Structures are given as C-alpha cells and as structure tokens.
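Q: Could you fold this chain for me?
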Amino acid sequence: MASSADTQGPTQTLALHWPTSTSGAAGVWMRLVKSWREPGPSPARSQHLKQLRKLYPAHYYTGPGSCEEVKLRVLQFIKEAEEIVMASNSSRFPLGESFLAAKGIRLTDEELALPRLSPPRETFLEKFLSGSDYAIRLAALSTFDFYQRLRAHLGKSPQACTPLRSSPYVPQCDAFGSWEPVQCHAATGHCWCVDEKGEYVPTSLAARSAQILQCPTSCEKSRARALLSSWKQAGSQGKPSPKDLFIPTCLETGEFARLQVSEASTWCVDPASGEGTLPGTNGSAQRPSLCEVLQSGVPSRRASPGYAPACTAEDGGFSPVQCDPAQGSCWCVLGSGEEVPGTCVAGSQPACESPQCPLPFNVSDVASGALLCAPASGPGGAATQRCQLLCRPGYRSAFPPGPLLCSLQRRRWEPQPPQPRACQRPQLWQTLWTQGQLQLQLPPGKVCHADYAGLLPAFQLFLLDELTARGFCQIQVKTAGTPVSIPVCDDFTVRVECLSGERLGANVTWKLRLEDVPPASLPDLRDVEEALVGEDLVGRFADLIQSGKFQLHLDSKMFPADTSIRFLQGDRFGTSPRTQFGCLEGFHQVSATSNASQDPLGCVKCPEGSYFQDERCIPCPAGFYQEQAGSLACVPCPVGRTTVSVGAFSQTHCVTGCQKNEAGLRCDQDGQYRASQRDGASGKAFCVDGEGQRLPWSETEAPLMGAQCLMMRKFEKLPESKVIFDADVAVMVKSEVPGSESSLTQCLAGCALDEACSFLTVSTVGSDVSCDFYAWASDHIACTASGQEEDALGTSTATSFGSLMCQVKVRSRGGDSPAVYLKKGQEFTTTGQKSFEQTGFQSVLSGMYSPIAFSASGASLTEVHLFCLLACDRDSCCDGFILTQVQGGSIICGLLSSPDVLLCHVRDWRDPSEAQAKAACPGVTYDQDSRQAMLRLGGQEFKSLTPLKGNQSTFTSFQQVYLWKDSDMGSRSESMGCRRAVEPRPASPTETDLTTELFSPVDLNQVIVNGNRSLPSQQHWLFKHLFSLQQANLWCLSRCVQEPSFCQLAEVTDSAPLYFTCTLYPEAQVCDDVMESSPKGCRLILPRRPSALFQKKVVLQDKVKNFYTRLPFQKLMGISIRNKVPMFNRSISNGFFECERLCDVDPCCTGFGFLNVSQLKGGEVTCLTLNSLGIQMCSEENGGAWRILDCGSPDTEVRTYPFGWYQKPVAQNDASSFCPSVALPPLTENVALDSWQSLALSSVVVDPSIRNFDVAHISTAAMGDFSAARDRCLWECSRHQACVVTTLQAQPGAVRCMFYADTQSCTHSLQAPNCQLLLREEATHIYQKPNIPLLGFGTSAPSVTITTHGRLLGRSQAIQVGTSWKQVDQFLGVPYATPPLAGSRFRAPEPLNWTGSWDATKPRASCWQPGVRTPSSPGVSEDCLYLNVFVPQSMAPSMSVLVFFHNAAEGRASGGQPAVDGSFLAAVGNLIVVTASYRVGVFGFLSSGSGELSGNWGLLDQAAALTWVQTHIGAFGGDPRRVTLAADRGGADVASIHLLTTRAADSRLFRRAVLMGGSALSPAAVIRPERARQQAAALAKEVGCPTSSIQEMVSCLRREPASVLNDAQTKLLAVSGPFHYWGPVVNGQYLQEAPARALQRAPRVKVDLLIGSSQDDGLISRAKAVKQFEESQGRTSSKTAFYQALQNSLGGEAADNRVQAAATWYYSLEHGADDYASFSRALEAAARDYFIICPVIDMARHWARRAQGNVFMYHTPESYGHSSLELLADVRYAFGLPFYPAYEGQFTLEEKSLSLKIMQYFSNFIRSGNPNYPHEFSRKAPGFASPWPDFVPRDGAESYKEFSVLLPNRQGLKKADCSFWSKYIQSLKASADEAEDGPSAGREEEDQPFGSGLTEDLLGLPEFGSKTYSK
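A: Sure. Below is the predicted structure, expressed as structure tokens.
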C-alpha cells in the first residue's frame, strides 16, 4: 500500500492502492476492506463477511493473521483520516488532531512538532515503538505528519518543488497475514524488527542503512537461543524429558521445518510456532504433512490459506495448483502452500508445472522464488517449456523479466538459464537526486566541434571544481551542535556536451546518499529533500544562474552562463527542481508495484553471480564468477577453467573442460582428461587427447595404461588419402619387428624415443607385424597449397592459401596397406638437410620474412608444420621459422633469416595484470570498434584476424620458434642474396654510463646456489652475428630497466655458438627471521651458478609514494623478511622516512617493521621490509585485558611511536606473481568445520563496549585462501578453553579474526528467551565452538568425576520458561564434610573421604533448627553437611557459581526435590547454583567462650562448603574464580562474617556476596564470649548436664540425642530475645574481632555486594517455628515472655530502659488487651528496623565507603498471599519459585514476570558484579527492566531497587526510622554515658550495636518526648 497526493487543487485526497490478486481469503479480505471504504451501509460488506465466515469456521480459523488484522485497522484509520483532512483543508480548526484524540491517541507536543535537534529522533522513535499497539500509533503519527506537511506545502509558491510522496506507515505482512520480521517506514527511512506478535524488538531501530536489517524469524530466534544458550524446543506436549528437546531446523523461508529430530524421536511441528504436534516414526504414513493438517482442520498458529487445500497423493504436500471453487479462481503455490504472486486466474488453471531442465551449478530451487512453466509445446524433437521466474511476496527479481525456454530434447535452457539467486529482498531507497541543465556560451572565436570534444572531460572537471569551490557540492547541517558536511557531488556530477558551435550544455546532477544524512538533523525525507533543493543548495544555485552572475574563467577566457536553468522532472524538463529516488552502486532499481505509487522498497542488491553495470544487474558471463553480492565486476576463472553457465556464484563453479564434459570421460585430480579411458557400454579401453577427443585407432580390449596413452597422444593416424604407397621408397631410419603383445604400442614407443623418426608404418602380414621408421626427406612428402591470395592479413609481405594437402610416401610390403602414424606437428624437428630445435621462444624481434597463412578449415597444424619444414629446408637463407595457430583462425608460417633476438619464452614470467596491448608477449591488440585483433610477430603486424573471444591470453593456441641448429648466419656471405645482416649498433657512451649508474656487479661469492629453488625469470637469445658481449650486456641491462617492477638482477651467459643468453631475475634475496640490525642473515639464492651477475641499484624517490598504516599489533608471527637495513647514524625521523621509501620501490614489499632490535634507548634501529606480514597478534585494541594468543614480551620495541609494524596500502599491495611465495607453518591438526556452529548474522548485536576479545590478522600474502585463514583462526580458538566464538571479516590485505569468550546474552520473558551474541564489531562469518559437554553431562543420567573420590551419579531435568526448555543436570546430596555425629558434634568440619560411586539423585536431610519437632521421617538430621549442584547445559566453558546457604524447614523438601531448587536460576542465569546446609543453633554455634568449646561450627561449615566448591567446581564446568556467596535471613547474618575474616579473604573463597535480609552489623549478629558461656550453661542445665567443668559439660552434651538438645534450645529461645540466640562468637580464631571494628578498615580484597531486605521479614515471623513448637508442648505462656524479651531487646543487650521507652514512644508500642494484634505488628516493625533493615542499610554504607567493589541494594515491600511458603518474596523470586511445577497455578503472570526479571538481575550480578550487565567485560544492558542504580552513600538518600511489579528505583529506604536508631538513640546513649562517666571518646566500637563509624552530625536532634521527631 502506498499513498500519494495530488497537489494541483485545493482539496487533497489520499489514493490507496491494492494488490491485484483476488484469490481465496486474501481476495475476500481485499474486497471486504474495499467495501469498508464505501460510505454508509454496504450490502457488499455484509456479503463479504458472510463469505469470510464460510471460509473460516470457528474450529478452523477465526480471522486474519495478527499483522493483517492491524493492517486493516490502519487502513481504516487512514481512510477516516483522509475524510477528515479533506473536510479540514479550508478550516482553521485542527480536526485531524481532534480525530486522533477521539481515537484515544494522545500525541504530545513533541510528537506533533518535534524539535529538530533535541531530543534525537531515534530516541523518540525507540520509546514510541516500544509502546503498546505501536503499529496503530505509528500509522496515526505518520498520517498526521503527512497531512500536516501537505497542508503546510499548500502555502508555498507555485515554483516550489513537488513534495515527495511520503506515504503513511502501513504494517508489512507476509503471505499468511503474519508480521514480516522487518518493518520499514519510508518517510523517515527507518527500519526495525518485530516479533511474531508485531511487538517492537528493543534496540533494533536502524536509520537509512544500506544493509538489510537482519531480523530473525520465530524459528531463527528459537535456533539462536538453542545454539547460544541451550534453550531448546520440546517435542512433547506434556512433561518432556531432556531427550525430547531439540535444536530447531529452519527452512529458507524462516519457518520451522516440518520434521524436527530430538534424541528420543522425530517430531512433527507447527511451521509457525515450532510446537510439537505428533511424534514421528519411521513410517511416513504417521507423519501428516502441513497440507494434510490444514486440510483436516487441526489448528495451526500460522494463518490458514482460507480454503481446504488440495494435497498430493505421493507425499501429502501442497498440489502446485490450488483452487477456490467459491470464487472460481486458481493459483500456483510454493511448497509451503504460499501463493505465488501474479499467478491467480479466474475461470481457468494457471501454468504451474515444474521445469524439466535442471538449474545450473546443481542448484535444486530458486531461492525465495519459483520457476513455473506452461505445458510443453512444439513438435516432438523441438518441444520446449516456456517458463517464468517469480519471487515470493516481499522479494523482487534483480534481473529484468523475460521468458525462459527449456528444451526438452537437450534438457537445457536456451539461450541462458534462470538465475537461482535472482530473488532478493528489496530495501528502502538509498539516494536522493535532482538534475539541472544550463548552457554556457563559448568565448568569441571558439567553436565546439568534433576536435573540441576532446577537451570536454577536462572542462567537466573544471566545472566540478568551480561548483565545489562555491559550496554547491555539499549540504551543511548540525548534529548535536556540530556542523556536518554531506557531499552531494561525485565524479559523474557534471556532464558537458556541444549543443551548437557556440554553446555548451552542462547537466549537473546532485546526489546524496541517504545513509550519510544524520537522522537527528534531518528526520524524514521531506527534510532531506528541502535541504537538497531548497535555498541552501540547488535553490541558491538557480538564483545565481538566473541573476546572470555565473561565469567561468579559464585561461583568460570567459564562459558566461545563460540566465535560465531547467530541471529534470521525470521524462521532461521544468522550471522547478524535482527530486527522485535512486539506488547505490551494486543495487538495481526495481519498478514500483503500481503505476500510481512509488514503492518505498525500491532497491535490490545484485546477487552473487552477477555484477552491476549501467544501472542493471548482469549475470557473470561464462568463464567468470562472483562470490560477493553488489559487486561491480566478475572475477575470471583460473587459466584453463571456465563455467558451465552464466551466473556462477562460487569459484568452485570454475571447472575444466573435462569436468564439464557430458560424455562421461574421467578426469584426473587436476581436472584434466585422463589419457586412458574406458567405454562404459562396450568395456573397451581407448585414449583421448588433451581436448578429450578420442583416438579411434587406440581402441583395444586390453587395458591401457596412462603412460601408454600419453605416448600415443604424440601421434596421429593418417587417412589413406594422405598416404602414397610406393615399393621403391627407402626406409630412412630403420625397421623393427615388435613382440607379439601390444605391437602397435611398441612401435609407437620406439619412434617416440628416436629423434630421427618423424613417422612410421605398421604392417601386418598374417600374424607378423613390422614397423618402418621414416625421417623427413623431400622424397617422403608432397605438399600442395591452393587458393592463393596476396597481401593477406593486412600486410603486403604475407601470402594466404585456402587449403593445404600434404601426402607422405611410404614403402609397401605387399598385402594390406600399412597404417601410417605421424608425429604431431610440434614434435618433429628434422628434415633431410637441416635439423631444427624447438627453442621454447614464441617470437622474434626481427628477421621474419615470407609469412604464409593457411585457413584453419583447409589445413592442419601438422600439415603447415611440414610445409614450413620443407620450405626452410629448401631455402639456403632460412635459419628457422615461427609456427603460429590463432585460436579458431589462421595458421601462420613465417620463415626466419638472421634473427636478432628471440623473445617470449614459454617459461618466462609474465605479468597477468599488464594490458596485453602493451605486452610483447603474445603481442595481441584488440580493436573494440572493428572487433578485430592484430598480432605482432617477428617485427610485422597481421590484421583482419578472427574476432577475439574470451581472454586474450588464449588468442594463440600454438606459437613456437624453431631454429636451424647448424645455422651459418654468422658466416653467410652477401652473395647468397639472403636478408641483409644488420650491422651491430655500437653503444653510445651515454647509454653505457647510464646503465653502469643503474647497476652494480654482484660478488659471486655471496651467491648461494640451490637447484631446488624455483625463481621466476625472463630469457632472451641474442645472436652473436649482431651482438658483441658488451652489446649483449648493454641490451640485457637496458631490457632490465624496461621491467622496473620485475627485474632486479641481470645475467648474460655465453654458452652456445650462435647466441648469448640474457636472463632477468626478480629480487632473489632471502632473509632469515632473526630480527637483527645486520643484513648478514640475508643471502642471494639462485637456481644455478651465474658467470656474471648485475644487480639494479636501489634508487629512492624524494617523496613517499604510499601512506603506511601502523598496525595495532605488537607481535608478528610467520613473517617473511625481504631485507634488513640498519639505520645507523640516522635520526629516527630520517630512518623512518628511508624505510618507507625502501618499501615503496619494492613491489613485493607488503609492509615493514621499524624496530629497536637491541631494546636499548638509543640502540640499534633497523628497518625490516617484509614479503608477508604473517599472523599479526597481541593487539593493542583491548589493552591486553583478555588474551588467547601467546603474547609474551616481544623481542623488539614496538610500543613506542614510530617503532612498530607498518602496512603498505593494499591498493598498491597486490603482490606480483613473481614475488616469493610465503606459507605459514602447517596446522598440527585438521579443523573439522562441520563441528563448528555457524551462526546467523541476525543473532548478533554489536556491542562496542566489549573488552574480553582478542584479535589476529592473517596476511593474505601468507595465506591467500580464505578457507585456510578461517581454519587457522578456528584452530587457535579450539586450543583455548576460554575462547568460545570466532568471527572472520575479510579486510584489505588480511583476514581479521576476532576471538571472544562467552558473550551470549539472553533477555527472558514469559513467551521465550531472546538470546543474542554480543560482538564488538560486525563480521561476515561467525563460528561458535562445538559444545563438547563434560564427561557424562548432557545425558539423562549425568555423572562427573570428583578427583581423589570417585564418580557422582546425578539426574537430569528439563526446565521450562515460556515455550523454551533447558536441560539442567542435578547432583543432589553431595557430601562436603564428614557427618558431625557423636564425637564430631561441636567440632570443626572434616573432609569426607569417599570412593567409588555416589548416588546424587536425591536430596539429603536438613540440619536441626530451633522449633523443629522430632521428625517421623529422615528430613532432619545431624548428618546434614551436604550440598546440591545444579548445572545448566551451557556453551560457556567456565560458568559463574552461586553458593547459597539455606536450611530448609522441617518437611519442606518433597517429591525428591530440594526445598530450594536452583535449577531455574541456573537455567535463566546460565550459571551453576550450589545450595548447601550448615549447622545452626547449638549445633553450629555452642561456645564456652574459651578454647575448649570455641564455637563458630556453622561458620566453619560454610567455609568448608566454599572450599569444596573451590576444589571441585571445575569438574562441573564452573569457574572457582567467579564464586558468589549468598544466604538469606539469619544465614545472611552468619555469611556476612566471611566478608570480614582474614581466612576467607586470603583464600579467595568467593568474589561476590548476596545478603538477603541480614548483615554482620545486626546488633545480635555476633555474641560476646561471656554471653556464650551463659547460654552454654543454660543449655546444659536444661538437659541436666553438669556445668562445673567445661569438659564434663561438653561430653555430656555430646551424648545427648540431637532431638533432646533441639527441644531444649527451642524452649530457651521461646522466652528469650535475639541477644540470647546462638550465633558467631568472637573467639580469636576464625572471627578475631567484632564486625564493627573490622569494617573500619578497607577490605583486603575487592568483593561486590548485593544486599537487601524484605518488609515481610521480622524476628516474630522468623520465630514462627518456635512458637508452633511451644504450642504443641502446651506452653502458652512462652508467647508473652517472648514478646516481652523482644521488646526488652530494643534497649540493646543491656536492655536500656531509656532506649526502650524511646522505642515504645516512636513505634507506639503501648497496648491494651483489646489491641494485641496492633502491638504485635508494631513490635515486629521496631525489631525489623533495629535488627534487620537498618543494619542492612548500614552495612551497605560501610561497604560502599570502604570497599572497592560495587554495592547494590533492594527492598521487597509487603506482599499479600503465599504466607504459607517458608521462603520470603525476595528468595522466591530470585530462585524462580513461581515456575516450580509444585506451585503451578499459585502465582499470577505478573509475579512470574517479576520473578524472571529478578532472576536476571541476580544472575547478572553473579556473573559480572553488576545486576545491569550479564558480563564483566561489557556494558550492554539487556533492557528487560529499568537499570538498577548503584548504592552511593549520601545522607539517607541512597538509591535502591524495589521488588514490586514495575521494579521502580527508590531513594531513602527507611530514612526516618533508621535515623531514629542511628542518630536519636545514639545521642541518647551518649548523653547518658557522659552524665555517668564523663566523655566516652575512647569507648570500644564493638559496644555500639550498629551505626559505628557514622559521622552524621548529632547536634540539633530533638529532646526525647518532644513528639516533633518525624516518624
């Protein structure tokens, strides 16, 4: 849908355009919406609704897809908006705004008139899109904005430009009515991602990007979370086991594949949702297809097609043709059932057949499209299918439409096949341009004509420079107050042509790239258009032209411009500028879907296998390929290879002639024809030549070896018509009688080995076989040429013949005529008089005469060769000949007389990039106009050759110089009348001096000879009758100068009687890899010993030619050093300057190192020029924060500028083919690419804040193959456990490898987790290390080996959150200490030595706690020192660990599940959760206050559990360096002690702490030794044990049953306050001082702290079990005593009456018998503040002030409901209790959502130390809730997070209440102490219950009783 406005009249209308398809449900919906546009009641509308009800029965389908539904509402909104705008065109009242308000849409002032600079548009849109029902709101805003701009435009002058047709936003839906993952709004150029419900995906907004936004589909998201974080799909609808989980497979369309495979079974799933429907079996009959499912009426989340689909009988798939009888229409469908656009017809059936011709390159289908064909037509042999390529909805073809013909007989496409990747997803317009035309007058006397046209390009540049200088080539805007220039000109902006003799016409095109426009400055396209054509640019230029002041001055000449300018307006010109959309290079502009609308998605990228030219995408021609989309050219296949079709999109499509043959011939490993073949039908063996042509005479029943066939290839069998049999002919060589077996082969082999043999005969007389060998002689051959033509080939010296017939004469032995086998033309060199040698050269500088050309159709190469041999043999002046066969053209024979220099040896190095027109070899030029080639040969030029096809290097198929071995050219007299010998030209002194200046002789002692070294060279023969040795040297050196890049060494040798040999070499120096200042490690290495060698001197330029980039790497490995140049006696700057120029002049130099090799200040500085930069590592980008590569101290100083490694620009760095090859050391093991998981780009989010990464660049000079570089990078990652992800990006000159740790980040919701991979930068290839679980993990019965013990046998469970499942392995009841029974009671824990196997499938008993009654089941026991380990299936190699100390109440563990199941937190947080029990009460903290019974056993239990985790958690995949300690309530009081102890700090038992409702600063957290003695005595007395002796008391207590001790402690606690609890005691051992004093010092190590409290917490609620125990014992009076003791405790341990009175006043603790409940609540509040919440806040303040770690605080408000649960709300939410199956239905969706968010906060803190970020090394917040602020101490206004539904941030928790305790009560105590004892400045800090260290001002507090203190 698009909209447009007609601006010619006062009334504005909005034209809506609809798709042409009317089939099925889509057609009914279309007609329904059309009927809605009709005013008033509509009978048609009612009819259409009835049709819809028929199409969609209630059990089958209830309406359009969610997107289609919203789209209809949007369209209705736009229709109504149109009517209102039309009515308000002449009104001043803003009806449009009122209409929005009536719709319930409130647009703010900022939305209605958004400021241009603040706030940024993206910020506004991000918030706007995140709102509910955003599609309707966005359509409302864009509609309002559209008409607001339209109305404002009406007031402009008629000359103003026509506005862009910026349509209101309309949701984009797919063919099934569901949301397209990518939504775009053309008016602003923004695109964003939505989920399957159409909800905006946070942070996905992109503005005007040239890249397609990567938005994953539902399946792709599901697959990403499975690959990244092991959240999988479940096949079972019930309670699946881990074996039922699977990683989904997605189709190309993004839907779920119908069949999914889990470990347990194969599942049929819904294509839209992925939900399992039916389990599959091996029989397909039990797996209904999607078509059958829809046909049967089974509901599917994917929108139904709206009719009962027809299915095929074979596989149940959709029939290609679907029809709707009710509508009388039919259409074609894809395999998914999706309608193919444009195929719907009424009253007949469309052509939906599949083509019978295969697609090229073994491609099975057209990606995102279909090939549909009409039935075959034409006569039988010429029958063809007429086909068309159609794309899926949302895709467009990059190529122009056209018929595709499939020949059924040949099964080939004619003339060319369809392109498999033609269908591409369109993108938003990318450029905006406008064009103006002006005229310039020529100066007097100047006339524009054909000769003048050559100056027009220069004039274009001059005019462009003038526009640039005057500011007409850029737009100036401001972004955040900073000026930004946007270029609008390029090299094609100005085009000048002659209009007449006196006038020049100039077209000026201003074009800007929309991606260059800052959205914050120019929010939408109308603003961009105004900036382009408004008064600041084009408008200003038009004013300048019309003023007549625009004049150009060039060479004192003036070119005035006319005062009129015209602007392009479509296909005509007008007076006002008109903008048009366009696309970038590499993108094809597709036509609009409707003539009346401009499609907002107008650019498709030229796909792989094509290139962009003349605004079109063109398939790569045969012999070329292209692997990158959007390319401007195709890459030629390697020499000798081509493609089977146009459009090749991979180098693998380049094949040899053998590989593409259709005759079934076999190829060797190089793709060439095997010489020996076997006929599949007859089984006979035969030979083929190099072109695959069969040698018919080689056919035999016996097997043929390859060597035999290679020998046979040298011969051809002459037909009898070319043989003359004569009994008188003598055998010129010899006769042989071969053996009985393989006689023909033996004869041929004998002739091949005999140089004198030119042809042979094989005669058979009976069973006897004989061979006669012949040499060429005049009486053995007779050649006859006919069809002579003079002045052929464009030269007067050439003669041409149409045909050549050569016959050989052989002796006849009688009987059958012998078979004659002739050596092929290039093989024989001997005649009767002269013997010739193949020189290997292809041309001669001069000396050719009498060239003769033969037509290829009338002569063979062999015959022309014979003709040349005979002609030269008869001519006494002939010294040789050149034989040339033009590809597909003439065969030329040129005779040679006294040649001077032979050129172009076949083994010479040749520059493949050098233009052939400039090259001496093979000397071919091609005229584009005449389309004819010209060949330069032997100093002559031959024209009118066959038009050139393909690569010029294949112009000649054969070219060779043959030389008479015994030539007398040096002694031949002039009387012979031969070609006059050219006198040797003496060298001038200038040339001699010049050459001497450029070269220096080489000391041959410094040359090392290595015959195995392959060194490129160029060779020439200089004939001695024309050159002396000095002249030969001079010519050779001059030739070297003519090869400035290649030639560095020149050698002239005198090793033959006729000629000198000139050999040119490139630089042959090879250096070792030792970084030293001396060049002693460099040597010249040549393949043979030279007799004299000259080296070209290095001449440095005055300026540096290239800009060298300093590499951000400190270490290079595998480099190839080109040269070592010491920089002695040079300043650093001069040495660096010289090093740059040294690399400039060396074409093989890819970079250099400028290094201080001695590592000393002022030491030895060296320049190392490099052939290859090897592997660049130890990047400076991340500061060394995280490494996987070996980055020990480099040998040389590279960190100080300008020291370091520098790279030459890659544009100048295409290493020539003569440069030495460089190879890195081979990998020690192969990389199995299949085992690595390739991740989609849509699963990636770029996070520049990531710090944990490593980088390596692999030089393309060292490893030019991308796959080899990839394998090396993957190999490096595989060797390091910390490396999880590797990305690759091709860069100029290198492949950039990025190595990452586990960077996955999941945001959880009630629907499903959204998991993404965080990368520091974009990459084209992303690989995740294969998930190799620890031994025994990942199965239904996991196990793990514990070192020194044995194997733990655990169990596995599938955890569900939303629609996703995750496997969690559970190891329950794992012992971490010896059971503290009998003599071990009241002792420190000891390790348990167990061996063998341990059953860890069920939880163990909890520890005794006060209030627990004697259990009837083993749920409580002294044998309780166990822990539970919950391990999620994870890709992370070393997971963070949470150790949570909690003792479950009696009987809370049920169903084999622990009371606190860590599975959900482990799964959501991707971490290991450990829950542990520890001893409490008398069992954990009984102390005598002395060494006999020191106490703190529970504290030591926790330390023992933490130590066990440090030792063994690595076996579970955990990281012992990332352990978080956690506990709740009273356990948090105890656990917080570990933060203050030296032992825990020194052993680094944990790195972070989570304290939930407790702290070490609680007044009763630690007891004094005297109090501990009193409590021990009270307990002993209660159970009847003696107290006189500590030893006797302890012995007695150890003998008592645990239940007796527990009952006794419960009875004592029932009447005692918190100061009488058994807890940690300062015993001088583990706890050496009071917490308040320990907190005065900075902690020894950094520990992050998350601490919080709950309003539901309290000492009364904590004592619930004690209260219930007392009631069960009938002791009702204990409740009153407990309340009294609790109230007394408010006065401190000393029960200060004044403090009690103040607390009673402040908390209103006065009560009567009738209001006991209010008293209880007030007492609970007072005790909660005093003992829990205020100490928690005080602990956070102390830690934030003193520690280096992060501090975060939360508070959970009072909750209602769930009071029966033991755990308070914060623990319930943090451990995911709302998701426990046992509590199904007890928690609301709001509570579940809150629990998910809190679990994410907690897991983030556990992993990173900050609840906002999932990783320490990243600052990318997932965005599941508002950020959690740091706790920063500031006078009671500290921030904290409130655990309520909206998770708001609050400040000043309990500010007034805690000020009462910290200020008022402290001042009250201080004044009383001063009255009794005087000033107490020196009192011990531990005497203060909490608040110690506070520096608040205590002055000015009110007096007690004033009642003015704020409550």
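A (continued): The mean pLDDT is 82.
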